[in-house]
Amino acid sequence: MKRREFITLVGGAAAWPLAARAQQPMPVIGFLHARSPDDAMPQVVAFRRGLAEIGYVEGQNVAIEYRWARGRYDSLPPSAAELVRLPATVLVAGAEPAALAAKAATSTIPLIFSIGADPIKLGLAASYNRPGGNASGVSMFTSALEAKRLGLLHELVPAVATVGVLANPNYAMAEGQVRDAQDAARAMGLQIHVLLAGTDDEIEVAFGTIREERIGALLQAADPFLDTRRERLLALMARHSVPTIHHFREFPVAGGLMSYGIDILDVYRQIGIYAGRVLKGEKPADLPVIQPTKFELVINLKTAKALGLQVPDKLLARADEVIE
After folding, report:
1. Domain 143-262+296-323 in CATH: superfamily?
2. pLDDT digits over 170-184, tens only?
């Protein structure tokens, strides 16, 4: 064989797998979320940042298919089924309704979730250290911190005897959230007035009740539907001058009074990293469920002043961020 022919043959053989790889489709992440792209875009940015840290860039070596429920939880099962049919290489689910819909849609496609409740109780994981099955992710404790938030709100407005709890009856965690708040209220000598709102009209009715019953403060229970109504809620809280505590920093940043919870942007960065690790071949069964250890108290002093509130020095000293 002539030298030129040999080089051509060897070069062609070496180049063929490269060409074949170049033609292979990119892996697809099915991103299923209970919220909306308008109010959850910072989480998406953080998710992409986590992916990039492990070597994946959307549009370059990974594709992302987004499906948003916009607070309408009944749209999640068909969206999950659609992502499974693509098929997605890995599913990412934001909030319990999305995670449960994804889990029901497939027992084989890897699932990375971010939820506020206990994944073991929800049937998403066998244990925190060894989840088993096809799912792992982050448990954010948002649904388990209502009692702590009520205590912080009581510190800020100790003279208020009746506190409203705004919860979405369509959210699976709502019953437990209300129960936790009621138990904590009894220990503090407070009265709880439960306000259920799962639609825009019911939100308006709830704030009408706050006015009529002269409810002095409000605990907004963690819920994706209510998150999608952030601007509406903050406008109503300002109009009715009701001191309110929330679960995510995004509320006081946008003009709310205070929040206590995890750093949600870091959570979604971690979710991005986990999704990337799965794309590289790791299995969710072997990835421990992450439990955040840092919780942040954020207080908006400008809003407190507008409400005529003097924030106690002890509470200010414990705040991780004070917005002035």
Report:
1. Response regulator (3.40.50.2300)
2. 998 899 999 999 999
